[in-house]
Amino acid sequence: MKSKTGVLLGRLLRNIMRSPDTIITVAITPIMMMLLFVYVFGGAIETGTDNYVNYLLPGILLIAIASGVAYTSLRLFTDVKSGLMSRIITMPIKRSSILWAHVVTSLVSNAITIMVVILVALLMGFRSNADILEWFAVVGILGLFTLALTWLAVIPGLTAKSIEGATAYSYPLIFLPFISSAFVPTESMPNIVRVFAENQPVTSIVNSIRALLYDGTIGNSIWTALAWCVGIMIIAYLIARKAFKRQLG
Fold this sequence. Notes:
transmembrane helix, mainly alpha, ABC_2_transport, 76% helix, transmembrane, ABC2_TM
């Protein structure tokens, strides 16, 4: 399966390299949001930190990933509607290789986007005193979050009837960080909003990344974050597998 997945992965990566505007488009939105919040709203937002870009960056990275996985849905939808998937299925390859190629492509393209966003954040004053192990932990959390959202993206990619339907699911995912601790502390929110913000996945993930990057107290937030990522990933994978089997007929 590995060699076949590699061939399919190479096809998808070559398509991305031929049209790098995909990664550029995904990176521009979170970068513009970061510029807007830091240089326009940053002075009016009280977070208890002197460097707002440090506070903001974890949430911006999650928004970048949520934007990027929409292209996984689009690529799958295109393969299905063009008949390419039907042709690939007739080849002597393990059928699961088709989905895994799209998932690994999502990991690679989102990793590139994240690096671009972090480079811009460095130019804006982002600094971290995390050691190498803490950075590996951050990469691991972001990787799990990407996998979870990517398997979610596979579902509409296989089942949608239109391009709009294949990508529309990503809008709530992009909006979710706004109702979390990504931009402001949850303590400043009204009670009802605060309860939702403190009990949705993004807050625990953002808090964990923030603690790892800036010597904060991680506490139980990292286990909550991992539980959310793994739980979403497993459920999405099982649903995506069923959708794929239905697609195969």
